[in-house]
Each structure stands twice: as structure tokens, then as C-alpha cells.
Design brief:
about 150 residues, mainly alpha, 2 domains, about 65% helix, globular
Length: about 150
């Protein structure tokens, strides 16, 4: 017999994992119209917020290893969404900047959070509960980041 703490329903990780996968799946029809994947969308969000970041800065912001993000950035460069250039100040650093196509994509993506947010709060959760959940998840991320160090 399985002990209580090993049951799937008693795990914190599973509902977070399942919710993450379902949220990403909800994004996909919108992102398909933009011809980008969810990880690419996250990179675009970071660059729309502040263009001209290093690979390391993007990796840190998205909590991804650079060896995970580098192939992603290469594909985005091939799609003409970004440019990768060596920093003139530090040749070890690669700066990522948006192309005009990448900048233009921002306007097309503008409605995605609104449309998805409307769908999410039309169910059992209110907007306040969704915002509370988001804030609690950031606290959890912070706590896990501290434990990882």
C-alpha cells in the first residue's frame, strides 16, 4: 500500500505542473497565429519589456539555463524575430535585440493576455483569486530559488 505522502493528489508539484501544461495549451491557438511557440513568446515578452538584453539576462529572467535558451534564440533569429550580436564591451556576452518583425509582433500579441484572462476568470476563479494565485506562485518561486542556492 502506498503511503499518504506518495499519493499523486497529495503532491504540490502535480497541480502546478498540470496547470502549467493546460495554460500553455490554452495559449497555443493564439501563438499559432503569430507562428511562435510558448517559450518564444516568453522571450518576446522579456524583450518587449526591455530590448537589447544579454543571453544571460534573458536566461535569468526566465529561470532557464543558457544551454536551453541558446537553441531557442537561434530559431528565433532564423525566423527574423531577433538579432544576436556580440557585445562591443564584453565579447563573451551576446546581446539580443528585436528586429522590426519582432517589434511588430507585439501589437499582434497585445490581446492575448486579455483574451486568455477573460476565459480563465469566466469559470470558478475570480480575477482577485487569479491575482492572489499568481502572487503566491511568485512567493513559491522566490522560496525555491533561495533553496536552490
Amino acid at each position: 500500500m502506498t503511503s499518504e505522502h506518495l499519493k499523486l493528489d497529495n503532491q504540490l508539484c502535480f497541480p502546478i505542473y498540470a496547470a502549467s501544461r493546460l495554460i500553455i495549451r490554452s495559449y497555443q491557438p493564439y501563438l499559432d497565429k503569430l507562428d511562435i511557440t510558448y517559450p518564444q513568446y516568453l522571450v518576446m515578452l522579456v524583450l518587449w519589456e526591455k530590448d537589447g538584453l544579454t543571453v544571460n539576462a534573458i536566461s535569468k529572467r526566465l529561470i532557464l539555463n543558457t544551454n536551453t535558451i541558446t537553441p531557442l534564440l537561434q530559431r528565433m533569429e532564423n525566423q527574423n524575430l531577433i538579432l544576436r550580436n556580440r557585445s562591443t564591451e564584453d565579447e563573451r556576452s551576446v546581446l539580443i535585440s528585436l528586429t522590426q518583425k519582432g517589434k511588430d509582433l507585439q501589437e499582434k500579441a497585445e490581446e492575448i493576455p486579455v483574451q486568455l484572462g477573460t476565459k480563465l476568470v469566466s469559470g470558478k476563479l475570480t480575477l482577485v483569486e487569479m491575482l492572489d494565485l499568481k502572487n503566491m506562485l511568485y512567493v513559491l518561486i522566490e522560496q525555491l530559488s533561495i533553496l536552490e542556492k
